[in-house]
Design brief:
By secondary structure, the protein is an alpha+beta fold. It contains five helices and seven strands, in the order E-H-H-H-E-E-E-H-E-H-E-E. It has a seven-stranded mixed beta sheet with strand order 1-2-3-4-5-7-6, sandwiched between helices.
């Protein structure tokens, strides 16, 4: 497996992983009709806008055949946990998204993507990071706890017709998730 920075050429594959990731991860958590209605073409448009932003970084994970099987997107803190001071935030950056195709789950790819993302954030002089995840996504919550994430906030968000709870996990020391 290879992890490398994403490029504009990767947008269709990223959009595909994103849609399949949502459909696999959020079934039973958010409205199934909403999940079934997700379209790769719509995500291509939104990922084109995301990749064109100067303040967003990202990585893709490729299998041995060069197929993109996962990705991460990250940058400066956009959504601070409630109660955190905007003047002296505990978390300087944020992992906006991380998805892996379901057939590649539990193979260490998520750990590698988070480690590589944290290294890139550290290279950009960010000392800490956080991320948001649906509270009912038990698999993801267990993963973030297992790699040292500390739950530090919650908020309600709308996804399709549903209002669901997201929880925030933070790492005050970005070095704690960087694997050599």
């Amino acid at each position: 497996m290879t992890i490398r920075p994403y490029t504009r050429d990767d947008i269709p594959a990223i959009a595909n992983v994103h849609v399949k990731g949502w459909q696999s991860s959020y079934g039973g958590i958010v409205d199934q009709g909403y999940l079934d209605g997700l379209k790769v073409e719509d995500k291509v448009k939104s990922w084109t806008e995301i990749i064109d932003k100067d303040d967003t970084f990202g990585l893709v994970a490729e299998n041995d055949q060069g197929e993109i099987i996962g990705f991460s997107s990250f940058g400066r803190l956009r959504t601070p946990p409630p109660g955190i001071s905007p003047i002296r935030p505990l978390y300087a950056s944020e992992l906006y998204a991380i998805y892996i195709l379901p057939k590649y789950w539990r193979q260490g790819i998520g750990t590698q993507l988070i480690s590589a993302s944290a290294q890139r954030l550290k290279d950009e002089k960010f000392p800490s990071f956080c991320l948001w995840v649906l509270e009912k996504n038990k698999r993801a919550n267990a993963f973030y706890k297992n790699i040292g994430g500390q739950r530090c906030g919650k908020m309600m968000i709308e996804i399709g017709p549903d209002t669901v709870k997201e929880v925030c996990y933070g790492w005050r020391d970005i070095n704690s998730v960087i694997k050599s």
